[in-house]
Write a structure and sequence with these properties.
mainly beta, Porin, eight-stranded antiparallel beta barrel, two-stranded antiparallel sheet, disordered N terminus
Length: 195
């Protein structure tokens, strides 16, 4: 073998050793898991209006089932999902969701359903008064968990929300009733550990 051939062989072995070392550690226990997700939609929407927002999910799962507790806060930019004449719309939500995965190990396609509690505030361009109201919401969603490295993953998802209560909001003689159905899509970044 020539000196160039030996050098190329040595480089290939070194590269394969580096790639093997970069692989995430595998665990033998893969039944129950505990995870955390950060949702980018509330963060991005709120930042677009120079306000704070965010969302986080904590979940526990076993086999193909996952139970999620969700907390989020969104400050909607004026003119985006905010009716004409109103401004500074904010939504704080808490939810309990049950998800089912079609594949094991909490990856691939999932569907989920549950209930949410929404606390809303909105103000008017006509004066300083703020209106607030609460709503119970039924939700149905689906997504796809794509593992990036080990148990770090991306989770694009979409959900439909049905408002179970829709009180009319009136500020300065301008009425508004929230739509009975809303659709949401976003991207979550998550990580979990096997228990």
């Amino acid at each position: 073998m020539s000196a160039m051939g030996m050098l190329l062989t040595a480089l290939c072995f070194a590269a394969s050793g580096s790639l093997a070392a970069a692989k995430p550690p595998q665990t033998s226990s893969e039944g129950a898991a505990l995870g955390l997700e950060v949702d980018l939609l509330p963060l991005v929407l709120s930042a677009a209006d120079d306000r704070l927002g965010g969302a986080m999910n904590v979940w526990v799962g076993y086999d193909r089932l996952r139970l999620r507790a969700v907390a989020s806060h969104i400050a909607f930019p004026d003119g985006f999902l905010t009716p004409a004449g109103f401004e500074n719309r904010e939504l704080t939500a808490a939810a309990g969701i049950v998800d089912f995965f079609f594949l094991p190990k909490f990856e691939g396609t999932w569907i989920g359903t549950g209930f949410e509690y929404w606390s809303n505030t909105i103000s008017s361009r006509s004066g300083p008064t703020t209106a607030s109201w609460d709503s119970w919401v039924a939700t149905l969603g689906a997504g796809f968990v794509w593992r990036l490295w080990g148990n770090l993953y991306l989770n694009p998802w979409v959900a439909g929300h049905v408002l179970l209560s829709r009180p009319e909001v009136t500020l300065y003689n301008s009425p508004w009733t929230p739509a009975p159905l809303s659709v949401e899509a976003s991207l979550k970044i998550g990580w979990f550990l096997w228990l």
